[in-house]
């Protein structure tokens, strides 16, 4: 475990000698201007959990092809927490580099830093559509107004939290999530539920 949270780190791109033994990396609440390059480039076999939350300017270095280069990599990370990173629809694509991910946390009910909340409007979106093995999704307060019929791609999904968004409806395909055990849709703008909602097991 490497916990560097609650510091003022702006860059962490030099690969540490111990990189292959790190299983959990917490860089939350720093001042990162970009995600650490080595997490993607070094083909880490043991790194399973990353927390990048509350790095409000983490997309600042996504220029001159750097972001596009990261998209070429695939990691074995299974848990990512990245709320309040100011990620928009474009930069959420970074999640396509985590095809093995089981747990994704992009939102929080803590509103004190919500001006830096991630914002995607529509779900699933590019990037998240590649995370089809995900079992837990936290999408609290990230500006979602629309859930598309593609929601049914998440066949392993057990928990989803869509609270504090702007949803007025959910599609019938939501009811195809047969493994769903926890579904939180509070503090949205839902006007009705799909007719098949009661068929959820």
UniProtKB/TrEMBL annotation:
Question: SUPFAM superfamilies of this UniProt entry?
Answer: L domain-like
Q: Which domain of life is it from?
A: Eukaryota
Record's InterPro entries? Leu-rich_rpt, LRR-SigEffector_domain, LRR_dom_sf
Q: What does this protein do?
A: Acts as a Ras effector and participates in MAPK pathway activation. Probably acts as a regulatory subunit of protein phosphatase that specifically dephosphorylates Raf kinase and stimulate Raf activity at specialized signaling complexes upon Ras activation.
Q: What is this protein called?
A: Leucine-rich repeat protein soc-2 homolog
Task: Please give the organism.
Answer: Heliconius erato emma
